[in-house]
Amino acid sequence: MSLxxxxxxxxxxxxxxxxxxxxxYMNVEKKTLQNRLYILMVQLTIFLLxxxxxxxxxxxxxxxxxxxxxxxxxxxxLLSPVLPSVWVIYVYFQIxxxxxxxxxxxLPLAILNAVHALIVLLSQYTGWLYTxxxxxxxxxxxxxxxxxxxxxxxxxxxxxxxxxxxxxLDKKYFFSLIFFGVPPFIGVILQTYIYGVSxxxxxVVLSLLIVLLDIQENSINTDYLTGINNxxxxxxxxxxxxxxxxxxxxxSLVMLDIDNFKNINDxxxxxxGDTALKYTATLLKGCLRSRDFIxxxxxDEFYLIMDISDKKHLEVAVSRIERSIEKFNASKVxxxxxxxxxxxxVYDHASSMKADEYMKHVDTLMYQDKRRKKVAS
Length: 377
What we know:
Blueprint: H1 3-27, H2 33-54, H3 65-79, H4 82-96, H5 99-103, H6 106-126, E1 130-132, E2 138-140, H7 144-164, H8 171-179, H9 182-193, H10 200-219, H11 231-244, E3 252-258, H12 261-268, H13 270-286, E4 293-298, E5 301-306, H14 311-330, E6 340-346, H15 355-376
Antiparallel strand pairs: 1-2, 3-5, 3-6, 4-5
Helix pairs in contact: 1-2, 1-10, 2-3, 2-4, 2-10, 3-6, 4-7, 8-10, 9-10, 12-13
Protein backbone atom coordinates (compact mmCIF):
# COMPACT_ATOMS: atom_id res chain seq x y z
CA MET A 1 0.00 0.00 0.00
CA SER A 2 1.45 3.39 -1.00
CA LEU A 3 2.00 6.20 1.51
CA UNK A 4 -0.67 8.28 -0.21
CA UNK A 5 -3.26 5.47 0.01
CA UNK A 6 -2.45 4.90 3.67
CA UNK A 7 -2.83 8.60 4.46
CA UNK A 8 -6.19 8.78 2.68
CA UNK A 9 -7.65 5.66 4.34
CA UNK A 10 -6.34 6.50 7.80
CA UNK A 11 -7.42 10.14 7.54
CA UNK A 12 -10.95 9.05 6.66
CA UNK A 13 -10.92 6.60 9.59
CA UNK A 14 -9.65 9.32 11.96
CA UNK A 15 -12.41 11.65 10.76
CA UNK A 16 -15.06 8.98 11.37
CA UNK A 17 -13.64 8.18 14.83
CA UNK A 18 -13.57 11.90 15.67
CA UNK A 19 -17.26 12.22 14.79
CA UNK A 20 -18.03 9.19 16.97
CA UNK A 21 -15.96 10.68 19.80
CA UNK A 22 -17.84 13.98 19.69
CA UNK A 23 -21.15 12.12 19.51
CA UNK A 24 -20.18 10.00 22.54
CA TYR A 25 -19.20 13.04 24.58
CA MET A 26 -22.48 14.77 23.78
CA ASN A 27 -24.95 11.90 24.09
CA VAL A 28 -23.80 9.44 26.75
CA GLU A 29 -23.25 9.49 30.50
CA LYS A 30 -19.45 9.65 30.64
CA LYS A 31 -19.30 8.65 34.32
CA THR A 32 -20.29 5.05 33.63
CA LEU A 33 -17.51 2.51 33.15
CA GLN A 34 -19.01 1.23 29.90
CA ASN A 35 -18.96 4.65 28.28
CA ARG A 36 -15.55 5.61 29.69
CA LEU A 37 -14.07 2.43 28.21
CA TYR A 38 -15.74 2.99 24.84
CA ILE A 39 -14.50 6.59 24.64
CA LEU A 40 -10.99 5.40 25.60
CA MET A 41 -11.05 2.80 22.78
CA VAL A 42 -12.09 5.47 20.27
CA GLN A 43 -9.31 7.80 21.48
CA LEU A 44 -6.71 5.03 21.30
CA THR A 45 -7.81 4.14 17.77
CA ILE A 46 -7.43 7.76 16.66
CA PHE A 47 -3.91 7.94 18.12
CA LEU A 48 -2.90 4.60 16.60
CA LEU A 49 -4.20 5.58 13.17
CA UNK A 50 -2.12 8.75 13.34
CA UNK A 51 0.98 6.85 14.46
CA UNK A 52 0.37 4.34 11.68
CA UNK A 53 0.63 7.18 9.16
CA UNK A 54 3.95 8.27 10.68
CA UNK A 55 5.22 4.69 10.49
CA UNK A 56 4.63 4.63 6.72
CA UNK A 57 7.34 7.15 5.79
CA UNK A 58 9.38 4.18 4.59
CA UNK A 59 12.23 4.55 2.11
CA UNK A 60 12.68 8.30 2.60
CA UNK A 61 16.13 8.66 4.23
CA UNK A 62 16.20 12.43 3.96
CA UNK A 63 14.82 15.25 6.10
CA UNK A 64 12.64 14.33 9.10
CA UNK A 65 11.19 11.15 7.56
CA UNK A 66 13.47 8.67 9.42
CA UNK A 67 12.48 10.26 12.75
CA UNK A 68 8.78 9.99 11.89
CA UNK A 69 9.20 6.40 10.71
CA UNK A 70 11.02 5.35 13.89
CA UNK A 71 8.56 7.13 16.17
CA UNK A 72 5.46 5.85 14.35
CA UNK A 73 6.53 2.20 14.33
CA UNK A 74 7.74 2.30 17.93
CA UNK A 75 4.44 3.72 19.22
CA UNK A 76 2.34 1.37 17.08
CA UNK A 77 4.15 -1.69 18.45
CA LEU A 78 4.21 -0.31 22.00
CA LEU A 79 0.47 0.46 22.16
CA SER A 80 -0.89 -2.39 20.02
CA PRO A 81 -2.05 -4.59 22.98
CA VAL A 82 -3.58 -1.65 24.90
CA LEU A 83 -6.69 -1.39 22.71
CA PRO A 84 -7.63 -5.11 22.96
CA SER A 85 -6.86 -4.95 26.70
CA VAL A 86 -9.47 -2.21 27.15
CA TRP A 87 -11.84 -4.31 25.03
CA VAL A 88 -11.39 -7.24 27.45
CA ILE A 89 -12.54 -5.06 30.36
CA TYR A 90 -15.42 -3.66 28.27
CA VAL A 91 -16.70 -7.15 27.39
CA TYR A 92 -16.30 -8.38 30.97
CA PHE A 93 -18.38 -5.46 32.23
CA GLN A 94 -21.07 -6.09 29.60
CA ILE A 95 -21.40 -9.64 30.91
CA UNK A 96 -21.24 -9.15 34.67
CA UNK A 97 -22.26 -5.47 35.08
CA UNK A 98 -19.85 -5.11 38.02
CA UNK A 99 -17.45 -2.16 37.77
CA UNK A 100 -15.10 -3.22 40.56
CA UNK A 101 -14.86 -6.78 39.29
CA UNK A 102 -14.19 -5.59 35.74
CA UNK A 103 -11.53 -3.11 36.87
CA UNK A 104 -9.70 -5.87 38.76
CA UNK A 105 -8.68 -7.15 35.34
CA UNK A 106 -6.59 -4.00 34.98
CA LEU A 107 -3.66 -5.36 36.99
CA PRO A 108 -3.04 -8.62 35.05
CA LEU A 109 -3.61 -6.78 31.78
CA ALA A 110 -1.16 -4.06 32.85
CA ILE A 111 1.45 -6.73 33.61
CA LEU A 112 0.86 -8.30 30.20
CA ASN A 113 1.28 -4.92 28.51
CA ALA A 114 4.42 -4.21 30.54
CA VAL A 115 5.99 -7.49 29.35
CA HIS A 116 5.09 -6.59 25.79
CA ALA A 117 6.52 -3.07 26.24
CA LEU A 118 9.78 -4.54 27.49
CA ILE A 119 10.02 -6.73 24.36
CA VAL A 120 9.38 -3.66 22.19
CA LEU A 121 12.10 -1.69 24.00
CA LEU A 122 14.64 -4.53 23.73
CA SER A 123 13.72 -4.93 20.07
CA GLN A 124 15.14 -1.48 19.40
CA TYR A 125 18.57 -3.05 20.02
CA THR A 126 17.97 -6.67 19.03
CA GLY A 127 15.66 -6.30 16.03
CA TRP A 128 13.34 -9.00 17.43
CA LEU A 129 10.15 -7.35 16.20
CA TYR A 130 11.36 -5.05 13.44
CA THR A 131 14.32 -3.05 12.16
CA UNK A 132 14.66 0.23 10.27
CA UNK A 133 17.98 0.45 8.41
CA UNK A 134 20.05 3.49 7.46
CA UNK A 135 18.08 3.82 4.25
CA UNK A 136 14.93 4.19 6.37
CA UNK A 137 13.59 0.83 5.20
CA UNK A 138 11.35 -1.07 7.63
CA UNK A 139 11.79 -4.86 7.90
CA UNK A 140 9.95 -7.38 10.05
CA UNK A 141 12.01 -9.13 12.72
CA UNK A 142 12.07 -12.87 13.54
CA UNK A 143 9.65 -12.37 16.47
CA UNK A 144 7.29 -10.06 14.58
CA UNK A 145 4.36 -12.43 15.09
CA UNK A 146 4.88 -12.37 18.87
CA UNK A 147 3.58 -8.81 19.06
CA UNK A 148 0.48 -9.45 16.97
CA UNK A 149 0.01 -12.66 18.98
CA UNK A 150 -0.49 -10.60 22.15
CA UNK A 151 -3.43 -8.75 20.61
CA UNK A 152 -4.85 -11.85 18.93
CA UNK A 153 -4.77 -13.76 22.24
CA UNK A 154 -6.68 -10.98 23.99
CA UNK A 155 -9.33 -10.87 21.26
CA UNK A 156 -9.64 -14.65 21.38
CA UNK A 157 -10.05 -14.48 25.18
CA UNK A 158 -12.98 -12.08 24.83
CA UNK A 159 -14.52 -14.36 22.20
CA UNK A 160 -14.36 -17.34 24.56
CA UNK A 161 -15.68 -15.34 27.53
CA UNK A 162 -18.58 -14.04 25.45
CA UNK A 163 -19.56 -17.46 24.10
CA UNK A 164 -19.41 -19.04 27.56
CA UNK A 165 -21.68 -16.33 28.98
CA UNK A 166 -24.12 -16.12 26.07
CA UNK A 167 -27.16 -16.54 28.34
CA UNK A 168 -26.21 -13.46 30.35
CA LEU A 169 -26.31 -11.20 27.32
CA ASP A 170 -29.05 -9.70 25.22
CA LYS A 171 -29.06 -11.40 21.81
CA LYS A 172 -28.18 -8.18 19.97
CA TYR A 173 -25.34 -7.46 22.40
CA PHE A 174 -24.02 -10.99 22.05
CA PHE A 175 -23.59 -10.81 18.28
CA SER A 176 -22.02 -7.34 18.46
CA LEU A 177 -19.47 -8.50 21.04
CA ILE A 178 -18.71 -11.63 19.02
CA PHE A 179 -18.37 -9.70 15.77
CA PHE A 180 -15.95 -7.09 17.19
CA GLY A 181 -12.90 -9.29 16.68
CA VAL A 182 -13.82 -10.49 13.19
CA PRO A 183 -12.71 -7.47 11.09
CA PRO A 184 -9.37 -7.11 12.99
CA PHE A 185 -8.68 -10.84 12.53
CA ILE A 186 -9.27 -10.46 8.81
CA GLY A 187 -6.94 -7.44 8.86
CA VAL A 188 -4.26 -9.48 10.67
CA ILE A 189 -4.49 -12.24 8.06
CA LEU A 190 -4.22 -9.75 5.18
CA GLN A 191 -1.28 -7.96 6.80
CA THR A 192 0.47 -11.24 7.55
CA TYR A 193 0.27 -12.72 4.07
CA ILE A 194 0.22 -9.58 1.94
CA TYR A 195 3.27 -7.53 2.89
CA GLY A 196 2.63 -3.79 2.91
CA VAL A 197 -1.13 -4.08 3.47
CA SER A 198 -2.15 -2.60 6.83
CA UNK A 199 -5.89 -2.51 7.48
CA UNK A 200 -6.06 -3.78 11.07
CA UNK A 201 -6.79 -0.39 12.61
CA UNK A 202 -9.24 0.50 9.85
CA UNK A 203 -11.11 -2.73 10.58
CA VAL A 204 -11.20 -1.77 14.29
CA VAL A 205 -13.01 1.40 13.20
CA LEU A 206 -15.73 -0.77 11.65
CA SER A 207 -15.99 -2.83 14.84
CA LEU A 208 -16.28 0.26 17.05
CA LEU A 209 -18.96 1.68 14.75
CA ILE A 210 -21.02 -1.50 15.14
CA VAL A 211 -20.58 -1.39 18.92
CA LEU A 212 -21.78 2.21 18.86
CA LEU A 213 -24.92 1.38 16.91
CA ASP A 214 -25.83 -1.81 18.78
CA ILE A 215 -24.62 -1.23 22.35
CA GLN A 216 -23.56 2.34 23.05
CA GLU A 217 -26.65 3.96 21.53
CA ASN A 218 -28.82 1.61 23.56
CA SER A 219 -26.98 2.70 26.72
CA ILE A 220 -28.61 6.13 26.37
CA ASN A 221 -31.85 4.43 27.39
CA THR A 222 -30.28 1.99 29.86
CA ASP A 223 -29.88 2.33 33.61
CA TYR A 224 -26.12 2.07 34.13
CA LEU A 225 -26.36 0.21 37.46
CA THR A 226 -28.94 -2.48 36.76
CA GLY A 227 -28.73 -2.78 32.97
CA ILE A 228 -32.50 -2.41 32.53
CA ASN A 229 -34.36 0.49 30.90
CA ASN A 230 -34.09 3.93 32.46
CA UNK A 231 -36.60 6.71 33.15
CA UNK A 232 -36.30 8.24 29.68
CA UNK A 233 -37.08 4.93 27.97
CA UNK A 234 -39.96 4.31 30.41
CA UNK A 235 -41.63 7.63 29.72
CA UNK A 236 -41.34 7.13 25.95
CA UNK A 237 -42.63 3.55 26.11
CA UNK A 238 -45.55 4.45 28.38
CA UNK A 239 -46.57 7.39 26.21
CA UNK A 240 -46.66 5.12 23.15
CA UNK A 241 -48.70 2.52 25.05
CA UNK A 242 -51.26 5.13 26.07
CA UNK A 243 -51.51 6.49 22.52
CA UNK A 244 -51.99 3.00 21.04
CA UNK A 245 -54.47 1.77 23.65
CA UNK A 246 -58.17 1.23 22.99
CA UNK A 247 -61.17 -0.24 24.81
CA UNK A 248 -60.33 -3.65 23.33
CA UNK A 249 -56.55 -3.34 23.59
CA UNK A 250 -55.23 -1.93 26.84
CA UNK A 251 -52.38 -2.72 29.26
CA SER A 252 -51.24 -2.50 32.88
CA LEU A 253 -48.66 -0.54 34.83
CA VAL A 254 -46.99 -1.77 38.01
CA MET A 255 -44.86 0.37 40.30
CA LEU A 256 -42.64 -1.24 42.94
CA ASP A 257 -40.72 0.57 45.66
CA ILE A 258 -38.16 -1.24 47.85
CA ASP A 259 -39.22 -1.07 51.50
CA ASN A 260 -36.69 0.24 54.03
CA PHE A 261 -34.12 0.91 51.31
CA LYS A 262 -32.61 3.74 53.36
CA ASN A 263 -32.06 1.33 56.24
CA ILE A 264 -30.20 -1.06 53.91
CA ASN A 265 -27.88 1.77 52.87
CA ASP A 266 -27.42 3.04 56.44
CA UNK A 267 -26.85 -0.41 57.95
CA UNK A 268 -24.86 -2.23 55.28
CA UNK A 269 -23.47 0.62 53.17
CA UNK A 270 -24.28 2.08 49.77
CA UNK A 271 -22.58 -0.81 47.99
CA UNK A 272 -25.14 -3.13 49.60
CA GLY A 273 -27.86 -0.77 48.36
CA ASP A 274 -26.50 -1.08 44.82
CA THR A 275 -26.49 -4.85 45.20
CA ALA A 276 -30.12 -4.77 46.32
CA LEU A 277 -31.06 -2.78 43.22
CA LYS A 278 -29.24 -5.22 40.94
CA TYR A 279 -30.92 -8.26 42.51
CA THR A 280 -34.28 -6.52 42.31
CA ALA A 281 -33.84 -5.92 38.57
CA THR A 282 -32.83 -9.55 38.05
CA LEU A 283 -35.76 -10.89 40.09
CA LEU A 284 -38.30 -8.73 38.29
CA LYS A 285 -36.94 -9.62 34.85
CA GLY A 286 -37.30 -13.30 35.76
CA CYS A 287 -41.03 -12.78 36.41
CA LEU A 288 -41.75 -11.09 33.09
CA ARG A 289 -42.53 -12.27 29.60
CA SER A 290 -40.41 -11.22 26.65
CA ARG A 291 -43.00 -8.65 25.52
CA ASP A 292 -43.25 -6.99 28.96
CA PHE A 293 -41.24 -3.88 29.83
CA ILE A 294 -39.16 -3.10 32.93
CA UNK A 295 -37.43 0.11 33.94
CA UNK A 296 -35.76 1.69 36.94
CA UNK A 297 -37.40 5.07 37.40
CA UNK A 298 -34.81 6.30 39.86
CA UNK A 299 -33.63 5.51 43.37
CA ASP A 300 -35.39 2.35 44.51
CA GLU A 301 -38.44 2.69 42.23
CA PHE A 302 -39.17 0.24 39.41
CA TYR A 303 -41.95 0.23 36.82
CA LEU A 304 -43.34 -2.66 34.80
CA ILE A 305 -45.49 -2.26 31.69
CA MET A 306 -47.40 -5.49 31.08
CA ASP A 307 -49.73 -6.54 28.27
CA ILE A 308 -52.51 -7.42 30.71
CA SER A 309 -56.01 -5.97 30.29
CA ASP A 310 -57.79 -7.82 33.11
CA LYS A 311 -57.44 -6.77 36.77
CA LYS A 312 -57.58 -10.37 38.04
CA HIS A 313 -54.81 -11.44 35.68
CA LEU A 314 -52.78 -8.44 36.84
CA GLU A 315 -53.21 -9.50 40.48
CA VAL A 316 -51.98 -12.98 39.55
CA ALA A 317 -48.89 -11.46 37.92
CA VAL A 318 -48.15 -9.34 41.01
CA SER A 319 -48.61 -12.42 43.23
CA ARG A 320 -46.09 -14.25 41.06
CA ILE A 321 -43.58 -11.46 41.71
CA GLU A 322 -44.26 -11.62 45.46
CA ARG A 323 -43.70 -15.39 45.52
CA SER A 324 -40.45 -15.00 43.62
CA ILE A 325 -39.22 -12.47 46.17
CA GLU A 326 -40.24 -14.73 49.08
CA LYS A 327 -38.34 -17.61 47.51
CA PHE A 328 -35.29 -15.41 47.04
CA ASN A 329 -35.38 -14.23 50.67
CA ALA A 330 -35.63 -17.85 51.85
CA SER A 331 -32.34 -18.60 50.07
CA LYS A 332 -30.54 -16.07 52.34
CA VAL A 333 -28.35 -14.78 49.52
CA UNK A 334 -28.35 -11.34 51.16
CA UNK A 335 -27.95 -10.49 54.86
CA UNK A 336 -31.33 -8.76 54.71
CA UNK A 337 -34.71 -9.45 53.11
CA UNK A 338 -36.02 -7.65 50.07
CA UNK A 339 -39.55 -6.34 50.42
CA UNK A 340 -41.65 -4.13 48.17
CA UNK A 341 -44.67 -1.90 48.21
CA UNK A 342 -46.62 -2.07 44.98
CA UNK A 343 -49.13 0.04 43.11
CA UNK A 344 -50.76 -1.31 39.98
CA UNK A 345 -53.78 -0.90 37.77
CA VAL A 346 -55.10 -1.63 34.29
CA TYR A 347 -55.13 1.45 32.08
CA ASP A 348 -58.68 2.72 31.57
CA HIS A 349 -58.86 4.00 28.02
CA ALA A 350 -62.16 5.76 28.72
CA SER A 351 -60.50 7.90 31.39
CA SER A 352 -58.28 9.55 28.74
CA MET A 353 -55.47 9.77 31.28
CA LYS A 354 -52.16 10.93 29.88
CA ALA A 355 -49.02 8.92 30.57
CA ASP A 356 -47.82 11.17 33.43
CA GLU A 357 -51.31 11.14 35.01
CA TYR A 358 -51.41 7.35 34.83
CA MET A 359 -48.00 7.15 36.51
CA LYS A 360 -49.18 9.45 39.32
CA HIS A 361 -52.28 7.28 39.74
CA VAL A 362 -50.21 4.11 40.15
CA ASP A 363 -47.75 5.97 42.36
CA THR A 364 -50.62 6.93 44.67
CA LEU A 365 -51.71 3.29 44.88
CA MET A 366 -48.15 2.31 45.79
CA TYR A 367 -48.02 4.78 48.68
CA GLN A 368 -51.39 3.53 49.89
CA ASP A 369 -49.89 0.03 50.02
CA LYS A 370 -46.83 1.36 51.87
CA ARG A 371 -49.05 3.11 54.47
CA ARG A 372 -51.11 -0.07 54.97
CA LYS A 373 -47.95 -2.01 55.74
CA LYS A 374 -46.80 0.59 58.28
CA VAL A 375 -50.20 0.52 60.03
CA ALA A 376 -50.18 -3.30 60.05
CA SER A 377 -46.70 -3.40 61.60
